[in-house]
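Long-time lurker. I teach an intro course on protein structure, and each term I like to show students one example going from raw sequence to a predicted 3D structure in token notation. This year I'd like something fresh instead of my usual example. Would anyone be willing to generate the tokens for the chain below so I can use it in lecture? Attribution to the forum is fine with me.
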Amino acid sequence: MTTRLEHNVADTRFEIYVDDTLAGYADYAERGDTKVRDLHHTMTFPEFRGQGIAAQVVEFALKDSRDAGFSIIPTCWYVEKYITEHQEFADLVV
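-- Reply from a regular --
Happy to contribute to a lecture. Here you go:
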């Protein structure tokens, strides 16, 4: 099993692929010119649940956002939970 993470700028989401099949994603919206991303929805397709897919894509989204100079609004309950459990990302929250 191979995984690949991508930032799909055109669809404003971070995606995770397992063996070239889309397994899940984290949608976001950028707040104007403020360098703030609202991570508002995380999805793992049913056949990939229970494998840590959501955690991988959210971690990727948070690292990419940090590297690009964005702050985060964790509207999605899962993103909020992930940040609570991984305090190294707490500084990103607006």
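Some talking points for your students: The first helix runs from residue 53 to 67. The longest strand covers residues 21-30.
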